[in-house]
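Researcher: Re-running this chain for the archive, since the previous output was lost when a drive failed. Same request as before.
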Amino acid sequence: MRQIAIKSFSITILFVLLLSGCKKILEEQPRSIYTPDFFKTEKGVLGGITSQYAHLRFIYGQPYYYNTLETGTDEYTYAQSADANFRDMDLSGVGNITAASSRSDALWGTAFSNINTASGIIENAESVGTIAASLVAEARFFRAFDYFLLVQTFGGVPLDLGAGELKFNTTANRKSVRNTVPEVYTKAIFPDLIKAVN
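Model: Regenerated structure tokens:
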């Protein structure tokens, strides 16, 4: 009886192994890594436009940048359980704003990547040929909007992200030159807004 059970179990295991063997090779299609060539397709440009709206949640969807805009105004002030971020931004003298305590990095880190995405859309949309001018205008608006937020928060900021002023950057670059406030307005913000409106 025991031998029959062992033989039955062995035969079952053998059939399972034979029938469940792989017949196809897995062909991956990564969807989490995008190359600069992606912006040369209609799907890439439209995805870039969508990301222009999605990036707003990284600025306004978390409390730190919102805190820098509201705390210390007539709206509200820090509370008993507030951490140093809220006390420092209160501007009532309770704390001191320093580079380490200010959470303006929520804007800095998000805006530049979005500016680069907008530049990629602007440069590549015409070559795709099927992208409406209104969508390119949206990218121009968001590039101007992000530069406006940056210049209002930090003063002059770089217009060259590594590939030239207002160009789509595809390589890592750790060097930058800070443009003046008037340069940011006259070279980036006003021209993009005028083209977006037209």
